[in-house]
Amino acid sequence: MTKADLIEVVSEKANITRVKAEKVVETVFNSIKEALKNGDRIEIRGFGCFEVRHYGRYQGRNPKTGEVIEVPKKKLPFFKVGKLLKAQVAKAPTL
Fold first, then answer.
1. Which pLDDT tens digit goes with each residue over 1-17?
2. pTM of the model
3. What span, in angstroms and rounded, lies between the C-alpha atoms of 93 and 74?
């Protein structure tokens, strides 16, 4: 499903115009992004939670040359799936 598909589904299910549905979807995504930028955790019961994970610096290797390189510390977004969503996906029929 693409973002455009999601907008279409929201428009149909909420019985609103596509323009309003696009604003809703954009608002949700932007709110999640802003919260993560601020280091906040977003928990949506039954779905999952978004959080920022901090990774320290470490030594890695360039796979082409084998040279040891210093990988700087970093922050990355992380999504942990909720129990209900995990169970629903597990029960979904396979194609």
1. 999 999 999 999 999 99
2. 0.78
3. 38
